[in-house]
Amino acid sequence: MQRTATFLWHLVPTATLAIALALVSPGGVRAQDTATTAETPSPRRIVISLTERRLHLLEEGRPPRSFPVAIGRPGVAIPLGDSQVLRKRRNPTWHPTANQRRDNPALPASVPPGPSNPLGEFALDLGWTAIAIHGTNEPDSVGRRASGGCFRMLPADIAALFEMVQVGTSVRVASGPAIVPAPQPAGAVAVPVALPTPAPPPSLPKVAPPLPIVPDPRCTTAGAPLRRMICTMPDLAALDGRARGLHQRHLAALPAERRDAAAYALLQEERRFDDRVTARCWVRRGMEEDPAVAAAARACLSDALTVRLEEAKRR
After folding, report:
1. What is the DSSP letter of 70?
2. Which of 162, 171, 275, 283 could join 122 in a cystine, given CB atoms 3.0 to 4.6 angstroms apart?
């Protein structure tokens, strides 16, 4: 009896461990597909060249791999600088942004996985808002300026990249050609090559030049009623243009290595401003010719643009 009791007592830790292991579901192995926290630093890194329209996967000691990508179409801002892979998604659901739905009200609130999903079967979400490396249901667009700001890849290429990179992999987007290591002969030690750092701009004179009124480049194709009012009414266009002039002066005063990130932050700020005035100064399409509607929208826009100009002066 004493031997039996002792045997059962020694089984308790083993049984407890077995129960704990049984509770771990097989799906936990795929937790990396939706992870949002960084894993162990990746030995690989990604460099995307906008002029080449190619994505380069670099790893020390191995030949670089290169894939064609689609980049943002003309008029769409493309983020530049450094980021990382924040999340991996298999069979992602596509959610159009507020700007995309405003430009095309016929877009659905979301598109589930399937052949009509613009993200394809795989997506690597980056640190920039609403920017990802993903597949596509329009493979003919790869290699061209055709996306809404993301980086599209051919289905087979994104499937391979998805398996090769992990959450935390660094990503650099460069406006010029990517500098990648040359293929190494057998037995040679690969030497990492750093991307060039642009030379800092010359210091600005102490006396600032007169502030220009910079027009909105979207005015030539503006379709939304509020944006047309800003573009066509001289007092609103002047307020908007002065804020843009201040933003340009602010960017010119920054060191070159900070300028791209600051330009993208200003772009995001402009998008948030557009969302705010759309909600506050809303005009139903076709009603902007009504004098009362136009007067109310004009006063609302004038207040919002004045606040934006004052914020730009304090920057």
Report:
1. B
2. 162
Beta sheet of 81-90, edge-to-edge order: 65-68, 54-59, 44-49, 170-174, 81-90, 122-126, 132-134, 151-152
pTM for this predicted structure = 0.48
DSSP state of 150: S
What does the alpha-carbon distance between residue 240 and residue 245 come to, in Å, rounded to a whole number? 9
Residues 53 and 159 in one domain: yes
Tens-digit pLDDT profile for the chain (315 aa)? 444 444 444 444 444 333 333 333 333 333 334 444 445 566 899 999 999 999 999 998 889 999 999 999 888 888 899 999 999 999 999 998 887 888 788 888 899 999 989 999 999 999 998 899 999 999 999 999 988 889 999 999 999 999 999 999 999 999 888 776 655 554 444 455 555 666 676 665 555 556 668 888 778 777 777 788 888 888 888 888 888 888 888 888 888 888 888 888 888 888 888 888 777 887 776 676 778 878 888 888 888 888 888 888 877
Amino acid in the structure at residue 200: P
Q: Tokens 């800092």 belong to which residue?
A: 200
Contacts 24+ apart (CB under 8 A), 26-30: 30/90
What's the distance, CA 36 to chain centroid?
15
- Angle at the Cα of 186 from the Cα atoms of 183 and 190, rounded to 5 degrees: 50
Q: Are residues 151 and 244 part of one domain? A: no
Cα–Cα distances (Å) from 165 to 123, 157, 241, in that order, read 12, 12, 43
> Which residues belong to the active site?
134, 150
Which sign, positive or negative, has the C-alpha torsion 168, 190, 63, 147? positive
**Is residue 50 located within the same domain as residue 168?**
yes
Name 117's Cβ contacts closer than 8 Å, sequence gap at least 6.
92, 93, 94, 111, 137
**What is the SS3 assignment for 227?**
helix
Q: Which two tokens stand for residue 64?
A: 């670089």
Give the domain range for residue 271: 225-314
